[in-house]
Amino acid sequence: MTRAIQIRQHGGPEELQLVQVQVGQPGPGEVRIRHHAIGLNFIDVYHRTGLYPLTMPATIGMEAAGVIEAVGEGVTHLAVGDRAAYASNPPGSYCEVRVMPAMCVCKLPDAIDFETGAAMMLKGLTAQYLLKKTRPVEGLERGDHVLFHAAAGGVGLIACQWARALGLELIATAGSGEKCRLALANGAAHAINYRTEDFAARVKEITGGRGVKVVYDSVGRDTWDKSLQCLRPFGLMASFGNASGPVPPFAPGMLGAMGSLYVTRQTLFTHIRTREATQAMADELFDVVASGQVKIHIEQRYPLEQVQQAHRDLEARKTTGSTILTLA
Ligand code: NDP
C-alpha cells in the first residue's frame, strides 16, 4: 500500500483526499518508481476542476522524481536503483510510489537533485518546445522580441532564462510589480504588470510599433484579444494554456485582417510521444540546468498532505517559480 492523493469527482481543492492505494508490479514497458519529490503544475488544477476531464477515481499530478524500484519486461533504458524524473501522461504523480509507462521516465543526471528534477520536467520541457520548436514561419533570430505571459510562474521563469540564453528579447507579463522584478532578474528584457498596464500598448511602445514575432500565451481567456494585437504581420500566436479560462471561439477571418497571423495550440505530450524524442528533449533540458544557464527556482514546498493549500495558493496567483510537494 502507498499514500496517494485522489479525487472521486471534479471540483474544488477539498476534493483532493489522502488515501491508501495498492501498488502492483510493473507490466511490460512499465516501471515502479518511489518518489522523492512531486512537481505541482497548473494542469493539475484543470484535471481537478474537470476542464480536462478524467475517469474517477483519479490520482492527479504529472511530474515527479525518485528511484526506480522495479522494471517491467522490455524496459532497457532504466534499471533498479536508478535516479529518475518524468513528465507523465497519464497523470498519477501525487503519491509515494506508482507503476507507470517507462517511456516518459528519464534517468536523472547526478548533478541534478530530486527536488530540482521534480520541479522542472513538465515545466522545462514545455519551455523548451515553445522556444525551440514553436517558431514563426519567418524564424526567430537573436535580438527578436517575443511576448511571454505569466512569466514569473513555473514555466515562465524557466522560459525567461532560456530565452536569454538563446539571445531573444523576451517581454514578460506578470500579475504584480514583485513578479515583474523576478522575471527581469531571470533574463526578461522588459516586464509589464498586466493587471495595471495595457500590455498591448506597452508592447507596441517597446518594439517601436512593430509588434512581436511570437506571443506565448498560457493565460487564455483574459489575454487572448490583446495578445493578437501585439503580433507583427505573419506573427505566431502560440496558445498553450487556460489559467484564466479557455480561449473563446473566434472567426479565422480576423487573423487575416490583423496581419495574416498564425495561431497554434500546442501540448507537450505531442512533442514527447516517443521515447527517443523524450530523451532528446530531456538531455537538452538537463544540459541547460546542469550548466547553470537555467536555474530552477523552487519557491514553494508543501508536504503531500497539504496539497489542498498548494492548489489554493496556485489558483490565487500567490506562487512564483516552481512548487513541489514533499514526502516525509
Ligand atoms: P504558473 O506557475 O505559471 O501559474 C499560473 C499563472 O498564471 C499564475 O501564477 C498567474 O500569474 C497566471 N494567471 C493569469 N490569470 C490567472 C487566473 N485568472 N487564475 C490563475 N492564474 C492566472 O503555472 P505553470 O508553470 O504550472 O503553468 C503555466 C501555464 O502553462 C499554465 O496555463 C499551464 O496550463 C500551461 N502549460 C501548458 C502545457 C502545454 O504543453 N500546453 C504544459 C505545461 C504547462 P500572474 O499572477 O503573474 O498573472
UniProtKB/TrEMBL annotation:
SUPFAM superfamilies: GroES-like, NAD(P)-binding Rossmann-fold domains. This is Quinone oxidoreductase. It holds the Pfam family ADH_N. The lineage of its organism: Bacteria, Pseudomonadati, Pseudomonadota, Betaproteobacteria, Burkholderiales. Signal peptide: none annotated. GO terms for cellular component: cytosol. Residues 11-325 form the Enoyl reductase (ER) domain. GO terms for molecular function: mRNA 3'-UTR AU-rich region binding; NADPH binding; quinone reductase (NADPH) activity; zinc ion binding. Keywords: NADP, Oxidoreductase. InterPro entries: ADH-like_C (IPR013149), ADH-like_N (IPR013154), ER (IPR020843), GroES-like_sf (IPR011032), NAD(P)-bd_dom_sf (IPR036291), QOR-like (IPR047618), Quin_OxRdtase/zeta-crystal_CS (IPR002364). The keyword NADP applies.
